[in-house]
Write a structure and sequence with these properties.
Elements: H1 3-7, E1 14-16, E2 25-27, E3 37-40, H2 53-58, E4 63-66, E5 77-80, H3 84-95, E6 104-109, H4 114-127, E7 132-135, E8 139-142, E9 145-148, H5 158-170, E10 175-179, H6 182-186, E11 197-200, H7 208-211, H8 214-226, E12 239-243, H9 249-253, E13 259-263, E14 272-279, E15 282-289, E16 292-298, H10 303-318, H11 323-331, E17 341-342, E18 350-354, H12 359-372, E19 377-381, H13 391-402, E20 405-408, H14 418-431, E21 440-442, H15 446-456, E22 462-466, E23 473-476, E24 479-482, H16 485-492
Parallel strand pairs: 2-3, 3-4, 4-5, 6-10, 6-11, 7-10, 11-12, 12-13, 18-22, 19-20, 19-22, 20-21
Antiparallel strand pairs: 1-5, 7-8, 8-9, 14-15, 15-16, 17-18, 23-24
Helix pairs in contact: 3-5, 4-10, 4-11, 12-13, 13-14, 15-16
Length: 501
């Protein structure tokens, strides 16, 4: 595609040089540049992409997007824009023919439950006969293909997002479901995705290291709802789905949409549940919607998953899907990798891997764990380095209040001191009345911490390992090392090899 065709997607720009340059791919990592690439220079917190432009030119790049004109040879085209991140998203969409305009695009954001809700929505749409692509923290599903989206991936970067969506179009998909994070929204990674449905799970304390304040975090989430007004597709209504029981409800409800659906359990809502029955094998309840009532059964555990199910049902109602398809789609989701996932190696106590890594999600996980055993709950968890420090003592307090034995360990310490991180968590655990060496412990080696929890467990207890879930690496310093809570827990349980890992 020629450069002039790509930059037509940018409203504000200055073009210097030859607009007929052929572009084969778009990159923002200078190490990936080669002839035929358009390099987008992004000013980041660690480095400024503009300083690498000469390096990319030496590697054969003949077109760059920059935020200021650089002294380059005249044969190198420069597109000067106010914001390189926005430009990266828009030209990535243009390179792939704006795939979002050929799909009905559903975005799911929130602090907790995004992956589960996105998976449920995808299953419901497929059960209704609609070919659907889904991008979550765990993977991208394009037709029958599953793609690992990488280490610690939240919302993929724009070239990947648009490539995945183009693959969905090519596979004949009608819908795309995108798990959409606050980081992705704040950095404009999803600009140009052309959302038709915006869904919120909840907004609680998280990522303040990145966003600065809770209000800025909430504003980032709100960009999903703002993007509903980006493009109108013929015959496709814009839909907002909001949680009436979450404090964000009034704030998000104000954004324009053709259809506004609320869901919840505690306050009056468009989509709600009655006769809720929760157990060790899942949940069942009657769904009450503007179109009538129907029964739902799910193998997903906990009342927080009832909220995720109601959010997914609300999307189904907005798309006028049959009740039978909604029921079948929910029933077909048997579990989510790393979300309250049971590990059974024949031991006489329960063992669970969960992704909980915020105070709210840890509280939900531990409350659910309490319903799964009448014995002790032993939790193993940590907090990530270079991330929100304020949540560390909060998570320690939650664990100390709800678990019988707390084991504090590593979770991606990065360049921070692991001892300092664990001590910040321990401050909250002590506040909950726990005594170090008696009912709470600090063991920096995550494998050793899991081993300790397993050795401590007695018949009927429940060991729950949280924070990593589906992730396949752990970061020490600036290096990602292979890691799996599943493998570590199975190893501690005496089953070192597992074919599915």
């Amino acid at each position: 595609m020629q450069l002039r065709q790509l930059v037509a997607a940018l409203e504000e720009k200055e073009l210097w040089g030859e607009p007929g340059t052929d572009i084969e791919e778009i990159v923002f990592d200078s190490r990936q540049t080669k002839p035929g690439a358009l390099f987008v220079a992004i000013s980041g917190t660690q480095s400024d992409g503009h300083s690498f432009v000469p390096q990319t030119v030496a590697r054969g790049v003949r077109a760059v997007i920059v935020e200021r004109k650089l002294p380059l040879a005249p044969e190198v085209a420069q597109i000067v824009v106010p914001d390189s991140r926005k430009a990266l998203a828009l030209v990535s969409a243009a390179l792939h023919g704006f795939p979002g305009r050929q799909l009905r695009v559903i975005g799911v954001t929130g602090t907790d439950g995004k992956t589960t809700t996105s998976t449920l929505i995808g299953s419901i749409l497929e059960a209704a006969g609609h070919r659907t692509g889904v991008i979550t923290t765990i993977s991208a599903r394009i037709g029958d293909q599953f793609i690992d989206t990488g280490f610690h991936t939240t919302t993929p970067d724009p070239p990947d997002v648009q490539r995945y969506m183009a693959g969905m179009v090519a596979s004949g998909a009608r819908y795309a479901v995108l798990e959409t994070t606050s980081h992705g929204l704040a950095q404009y990674r999803t600009l140009g995705c052309e959302y038709d449905v915006a869904v919120i799970t909840n907004i609680t304390h998280e990522h303040l290291d990145f966003h600065g304040t809770f209000d800025e975090y909430r504003e980032a989430k709100a960009r999903l709802f703002q993007q509903l007004s980006s493009l109108r597709k013929p015959g496709v209504p814009k839909v907002s789905v909001t949680n009436v029981d979450d404090p964000s409800f009034d704030f998000l409800r104000q954004f324009a949409a053709d259809v506004k659906l609320s869901y919840g359990l505690k306050s009056p809502a468009d989509v709600t549940a009655r006769d809720v029955k929760l157990g060790a094998k899942g949940a069942s309840f009657t769904v009450v919607t503007p179109r009538g009532e129907f029964q739902v059964s799910s193998s997903l555990l906990g009342d927080f998953n009832v909220y995720n199910i109601l959010a997914a049902i609300s999307v189904g109602i907005s798309q006028e899907l049959r009740f039978e398809a909604i029921q079948r789609g929910i029933e077909q989701v048997k579990g989510i990798t790393g979300r309250m996932e049971a590990i059974d190696c024949g031991q006489d106590f329960g063992a669970v891997v969960d992704f909980a890594h915020t105070p709210g999600s840890l509280e939900q996980a531990l409350k659910l764990a309490r319903t799964l055993t009448d014995k002790r709950v032993i939790v193993v968890f940590g907090c990530a380095g270079l991330r929100d420090q304020l949540k560390r003592p909060e998570m320690g307090f939650v664990a100390g209040r709800l678990a019988d034995i707390v084991v504090i360990t590593a979770e991606d310490p990065r360049t921070e001191s692991l001892d300092d991180i664990m001590e910040q968590i321990a401050q909250g655990t002590r506040k909950a009345g726990r005594q170090e060496g008696a009912d709470f412990f600090k063991i920096g080696d995550r494998g050793a911490a899991i081993e300790f929890a397993v050795q401590t467990a007695r018949a009927g207890d429940l060991v729950i390992v949280t924070g990593k879930g589906h992730e396949q690496s752990m970061c020490f310093g600036t290096t990602e090392y292979p890691w799996s809570d599943h493998k570590a827990l199975r190893r501690a349980l005496g089953q070192p090899e597992w074919p599915s890992d």
